[in-house]
Design brief:
Elements (H helix, E strand, L loop, with lengths): L6 E5 L3 H13 L3 E5 L2 H7 L6 E6 L7 H10 L6 E5 L4 H9 L4 E4 L4 H31 L3 H11 L4 H8 L3 H15 L15
Parallel strand pairs: 1-2, 1-3, 3-4, 4-5
Helix pairs in contact: 6-8, 7-8
Amino acid sequence: MTIKKPLVRIVDDDPDVLKAMRKVLELEGYQVVTYPSGEAFLTEDSYSLPGCVILDLKMPGLNGLEVQYQLKAREFNHPVIFLTAHGEVESAVFAMKEGAADFLQKPVDPLRLLEVVALNIDKDLKGLTLRVEERKKKAALLTPREAQVIKKVLMGLSNKDIGELLGLSERTVENHRAAAYKKLAVSSAAELKDFVYFI
């Protein structure tokens, strides 16, 4: 599995801030995408791409903390860097307690921006590599039959259909599936998508 090129997402309702930050980051060679609101980001972003998000704390509609809450619920695992104006220290501290990676104060110093982004993208890529290695190890624990069953589950087939295809009873398929879920440390078919490249 190849790790895709990292993406810096910037979410801010101020077009001048978006333009300035985008320019600094693109000059440094980063792939950047900007969003004018939390809602646009949550709707349009490709979560699977590694990288980080720079998120304004105060925005009309969903504010930064509300977006952060939604990201946690959606298991967005990339670092979240908050943009804060003077006097928002309390909110920034709260954001850090909720898992934010860092915060930048407006107006943003370009060198500080590049330093924070480089650090967090590096952290995200290392974390992604670890997650990939972990999944490979777990997938390697499956017996050939368990792997066969899980491949069919990933195709959306029911236990009954899998049994008919593989010449097994539905009960046997259930047992293989349960054993595989235990080895992969998942509890539903939806969670298996993380293993699609390794089985």
